[in-house]
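[User] Once you have settled down, look closely at the record that follows, and write a paragraph about the fold.
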Amino acid sequence: MSIYVQVLCVRLGYYAQQTLAEVQAKEFRQQRSNKKRYFAWFVAEFSVILTDLPEVIGIGIACNLFFGWPYWVGVILSLLTTMSFLATMKFGMQILEGIIVGFVGIMSIALFVEMSFVEPDKEAILKGWIYGFVDV
């Protein structure tokens, strides 16, 4: 449901050149309806929680599996990384984009280093990349 709302918000922003918050503020100001405004705020907060909760739990589980850390350490790490990414936005989006490109580059290098250790069948890899599947 939250993804559907996000798609609708993108369409609204594209066609109306306004965000959902701007449209709601304009509409609710005309109606002078606090109940609708608080309900919309509640739905927005609930959607954020529903979409972010699996990510936070996933990071906790991943840190437990990879490093043997307790789950709560992974959850705190998730909080710290999110806050640090948000703090870099103060310096501009290009800094944040550069950090993300750096992380993707590190993962790509790690993938190819790992593949060199395993030495998989190169023909099967190419078939998988070209066709999207390989019969086993």
In short: Residues 92-136 form one domain. The mean pLDDT is 86.
